[in-house]
Amino acid sequence: MVMLDRKLTRDLLRLWAQVLAIAMVMACGVATIVIAVGASRSLEETRSAFYDRYRFGSVFVTATRAPAYLADRIAEIPGIAAVQPRISQPVLLDIEGMAEPATGIAVSLPDFSEPDVNRLYLRRGRLPEPGRADEIAVIETFAEAHGFQPGDRFKAIINGRSRLLDIVGVVLSPEYIYALGPGEMVPDPRRFGVLFMSHSVLADIADMNGAFNDLAATLQRDANSERIIDTIDGILKPYGATGAYSRKDQISHAFLDSELVQLRAMATVIPPIFLFVSAFLVNMILSRLIQLEREQIGLLKAVGYSDLSIAWHYAKLVIAISAIGLIIGAIAGTWMGQGLTRLYGQFFSFPFLIFRRSFDLYIIAGGITVLAALAGGAKAIWVTVALPPAVAMRPPAPPRYRSFFSGRLQKLNFFSQLTTMSLRHMIRWPVRSALTALGTSMSVGLLITAMFSFDSIDYMIDTIFFRADRQDASLSFTTARAPSSMQDVAALPGVLRAEPFRTTQVILRNGHRERRLAIAGVPDDADLSRILDLDLNPVPPPDAGLLISERVANLLHLKPGDSVEIELLESGRRVEYLPVSGVVRGMKSSGDPVEPGQTALGMATGGVPVTAIVQSYVGLAVYARNEVVDRLMADGTRYSGVRIAIDPARLNELYEAVKQTPGLASIALQRVSLGQFRKTIAQNITVMMTVYIGLAVIITFGVIYNSARIQLSERARELASLRVFGFTRAEVSRVLLVELAVIVAIAQPLGWLLGFGFSWSVIKGFESDLFRIPLILNPATFATASLIVIAAAIVSALIVRRRVDRLDLVRVLKTRE
Amino acid sequence: MAEPVLSARNVTKTYGTGEVQVHALRGVDLDLYEGEMAVLLGPSGSGKSTLLNIIGGLDRVTSGAVSFRDRDLTNVSERQLTRFRRDHVGFVFQFYNLIPSLTAWENVALVTEVSKDPMLPEEALAMVDLTDRMTHFPSQLSGGEQQRVAIARAIAKRPEVLLCDEPTGALDSTTGILVLEALSHINSELGTTTAIITHNAGIRLIAHRVFHFVDGQIDKMTVNQERIAPAEVTW
Known about the structure:
Helices cover 52% and strands 20% of the residues of chain A. By secondary structure, chain A is an alpha+beta fold.
């Protein structure tokens, strides 16, 4: 066996370039598994450690004003482990040196103990002391965005009163790992802060003495959360509670979850592509090697080596290649996985990161890779085993070629003889040619999948910001206001146009199907915020009845003309009925107040195809005229907020005025959000495209280089003969390159199809109530993907071409193949 | 006497560097004249093929000079050598070197496509008596037929020189004679200067002149006063 192993080592060294090309493809498969699973495990571990140590809640509820003793009643519900009644209050921030107003939320901390639920991790300074007015702790992202340190101060309007707040500490909260401002699409730490204040202080400011308006609870291990939610709803119903919700609907948590889902999707979608390609490459190179070594194999058998030991010899070659791929992939994967985890650590704010080393992953990834490679090599190895030694020692029968045409047509010369050589060779090995094309097309598909989300996002931005919600900003009132408030808003400096809106939380029910969502009221002459039909044409809101989005229509099985039951959560859970007037696109402004438990936007920071999802793009949109909502609520004409168009020249004046305006809960600046959104996307594009182009180039290179090398090895004699007959190097290379060019050309449409399919399955995989992405693929995306792959193919072909130039003419003529 | 078509002057060829050097040619002079048929005879390793490759523009001399008519071939570029082979030389090899993916006709057309004044492929195939095998692929032809296709391919461009390296080396006597007849026919019909390498001494009798190679040198040159027909060659 020693001599065979020596042969194995030399074969590996001799074929190093091809071995490396295959190993790199395998390494990509291994690395994607290690990166995605590794990072998602690390993130999950980090998140659950943070949750456990800082007692993150499992059930959340907000109310208008609930008496403090109800918290004790809730604590007694069977299955509840701990409750923390709190006060939370929207604030407008006025920070020096910052023109646009920022918003925030003030959350109370118990006076003489740590919170029982949602504890804080103290990064710097200390927590506010009970009774010390105006002391606050702020979340780290906000502090960092402004360079705040304990000891710094800024102004804020809380409950209509302006106050100067002292920062005493910088904290992180399990509740705000992903801190998204109201109406925002991505976290903008400059414009959204979470402030923690002593309970007694905030109770005074918010007129909440002896009461709470927010509660978080942890549950016992096997508690029935649905029953608990129902019980809590029953207790708090008279106090303006809009319904308790569980952790899965908590914004920060839901966000993190969707990231983890995407990471895991990456681990299941991408590695199989690489495994398939590497299996094919192993098959290709091994078949050729065995064909070349046919006579040696016959000799080995003749001198008494068993079939098994010869098969094992070639299997070892496959295993050795896989081992190289595994090592490269594991090292690169671990390194990049930690990088990705760190990136997530920056994007989400964790106080610490736990890197989980998963040795089982390497074993699983390695096992799968070796098996895939052996499967690829199985046929080639089987052929050697099956060959009787006497047959093996004879040269193989010459390949049979076919004419494109028969009879007289054969005389027709459509192509030059050189081109004919290329095409016949390709047709002679149709499976190999097809697999080569398929392998190449996978790179095209992969690139399209990486890029389609940008097209989709562009489309969404265009639809939302330039067709549907065209306001510059949305102002939300702390409570619904009388129509006179419109005049106040219209009087603000720089306001060109103002459109009031009214929203209300409801449960929409059709038979046993129900969904909790908000009805968005719009004025009948709405021009800033428009409702778009399925063809993106604006439609006016109907005089009576609802316009529902496609998604809601599908979920609740509703069609125009149906009557739908509406439970009004903000009006004592009264039940009303309204007809469905039509089905529309369902693009909702992100400027409307975010309902609890509804995420605003997903953002993948890793190499995951889905880069962003605007929840509001779909969400669960239901529209009605403002008057229809007023009639439902039966409390006269009221507005939840106003959408405005702004004169850009007077922007700063407006900002100043807004900062001084009491009664505003928040201001969402659409244009500023869009800028922030685009900035975040742009950063992600660079990282993601680099990774994906890298992967696609490796596949293309692996496939094209190997296929060209094998062609060259099969046809060296033929090509050298052409050189002897006086064909130039360029002409001879053309024979090889035409075949590759045809294969790469066939791979393009195939790759576009694959890209479409991959993208479609990605979209289906992520579709939920929160997220839905339209599948938009621009021609430019197909073209870019193809150009990148073609460029990689040209480079690998040129490397092989250099070998054509160095063919030894004299030697090949003297030997029989 | 007429000017030679091809001439080699004091040609040496050394392979390898450093300690292990193989002297394949040690100062060879050779002239091939218009329309003549020459046979290069000698044991393996005596330098016949090396010389043929050099005068055919496939290889370069270590020292000495080679010229085609009045053009020097010693110090020209790779591109010019390729051009020389394309325009002036036809090759026939022991293992035929046909393109397996092209039919007999196409193998000939391969060369005529890039030649200045070629004959029709069917014309060339007719000269080697293969008119009825034109649409066959090499794998469907016998060894002798394949070699005749190779000859047709070599002569279809009307080369000035036809260089044949062991053209009958892989063939039995009957088919070998057919091949020699084809070569002889072309030599007399087209007047193509032909050089044939062989280690079969019987073949020497069909040539005008015979060069005997020994150990990298031409040991002697003999002129056949009377040539025999290929059919009379004893194997």
